[in-house]
Design brief:
The complex is a heterodimer of chains A (111) and B (114). Chain A is mainly β and 111 residues long. Chain A is 0% helix and 46% strand. In chain A, 37% of the residues are buried. Chain B starts with a strand and ends with a strand. Classes of the chains: A mainly beta (111), B mainly beta (114).
């Protein structure tokens, strides 16, 4: 059982609001990831981190930003939410190049 | 670039075996995974196989890897209605090796009929 947690599970918010999606893991994993899953079910990497103070952009361009100040915490922020940001956001972590474990996801709807 | 492909839909009767197939293009993949996603939920790791293995069995699940054809399959024996979900094939490509990023297939929706 993976110990990786995402909050909130569901979020409905108006256009222009600033939001932060939380992701925490208690396994001490060095690598963490954010994937975006669009309604067509495909998942794409939008951000990743090798460790504290390391953040990199993934394959899919995203207007979101991330930070990694603590090993266990990898929040994702949208400064000004738009309807095009409506999606499911999945956080994952791994120890080095080993198996990635996923959180339950945050389903975001921007009106 | 790296690509992973799956069929979109599979329907089986309860008690039958299900076989979900996946093809990938990156010959330097290190790990290949099967994840399960139930409605409204995140991804649950089902099983994975190292690229130097041909087969892995775990209770009702059997994974077969054909490296020559870059083909991965997941067989679920005695399929139950609780197995109804979307199944994602994924690989950590050679290019993605340093980042360990996952390249996902589109997912296969498995529908189990009672």
């Amino acid at each position: 059982e993976a110990d990786i947690y995402q909050t909130p599970r569901y979020l409905v918010i108006g256009t222009g609001k600033k939001i932060t999606l939380e992701c925490s893991q208690t396994m001490g994993h060095d690598k963490m990831y954010w994937y975006q899953q669009d309604p067509g079910m495909e998942l794409h990497l939008i951000h990743y981190s090798y460790g504290v103070n390391s953040t990199e952009k993934g394959d899919l361009s995203s207007e979101s930003t991330v930070s990694r100040i603590r090993t266990e915490h990898f929040p994702l922020t949208l400064e000004s939410a738009r309807p095009s940001h409506t999606s499911q956001y999945l956080c994952a972590s791994s120890e080095g190049r080993s198996v990635q474990y996923f959180g339950a996801g945050t389903r975001l709807s921007v009106l | 670039g790296e690509d992973v492909e799956q069929s979109l839909f599979l329907s089986v009767r309860e008690g039958d075996s299900s076989v979900i197939n996946c093809t990938y293009t990156d010959s330097s993949s290190t790990y290949l995974y099967w994840y399960k996603q139930e409605p409204g939920a995140g991804l649950q790791l089902l099983t994975y196989i190292f690229s130097n293995m041909d087969m892995k069995q775990d209770q009702r699940l059997t994974v077969l890897l054909n490296k020559k054809d870059k083909h991965l399959s997941l067989r679920i024996a005695d399929t139950q209605t609780g197995d109804s979900a979307i199944y994602f094939c994924a690989e950590t490509g050679g290019y993605g090796g340093a980042t360990n990023k996952l390249i996902f297939g589109t997912g296969t929706l498995l529908a189990v009929q009672p």
